[in-house]
Amino acid sequence: MGLIIFLLKNVISTRSFRALWNQASNEKKKLIMNIFDISQDDISFFDGAEALILTQPFSEDGFMSETEKIRVYRSLIEKYQLKNVVFKPHPRESTIA
User: Fold this and answer.
1) Distance between CA atoms of 18 and 78, rounded to whole angstroms?
2) What letter would DSSP give residue 7?
3) pLDDT digit string (tens) for 78-97?
4) Which helix (H) or strand (E) holds 3?
5) Which of left, alpha, beta for 9 (phi over 0: left; psi -120 to 50: alpha)?
6) Parallel, antiparallel, or unpaired for β 51-54 and 11-16?
7) What DSSP string describes 61-93?
8) In what order do the strands lie in the sheet with 51-54?
9) What is the pLDDT of residue 15?
10) Do 89 and 95 contact (CB within 8 A), yes or no?
11) What pLDDT, on a 0 to 100 scale, did the predictor assign at position 10?
12) Which among 12, 30, 50, 55 could bridge 84 via Cys, Cβ 3.0 to 4.6 Å?
């Protein structure tokens, strides 16, 4: 089971992806899948990752610079010493680094 990191505004939470997914209602699953354009195949792929980072369009919405946003993602990876990380960008996300 993978470790999931939700980065929502300034809240960071680490939880088992499979445990969270299994506990979620069908409505919540559909909402998450729609917001992040996630398919059922993606869900299976996420299980193989050590971490899943669901990004938010912070720089696109003016909350922080692009450089700061990349620094946040890098610091998460370093803090949790993650090796196998999957980034699932928000559909409005434009970060390419």
Assistant:
1) 23
2) E
3) 888 888 888 888 888 887 65
4) strand 3-8
5) left
6) unpaired
7) TTSS-HHHHHHHHHHHHHHTT-SSEEEE--TT-
8) 11-16, 3-8, 51-54, 85-88
9) 65
10) yes
11) 46
12) 50
Task: Locate 37 and state its tokens.
Answer: 């354009």
Q: Which amino acid belongs to residue 25?
A: S
- Low-confidence stretches of the chain (pLDDT beneath 70): 1-16, 96-97
CB-based contacts of 55: which residues, under 8 Å, 6+ apart? Answer: 7, 73, 87, 88, 89, 90, 93, 95
The token pair at 67 is 């450089």
Instruction: Say whether pTM exceeds 0.70.
Output: no
How far is residue 57 CA from its own chain's centroid? 12
- Count of Cβ atoms closer than 10 Å to residue 74 Cβ: 11
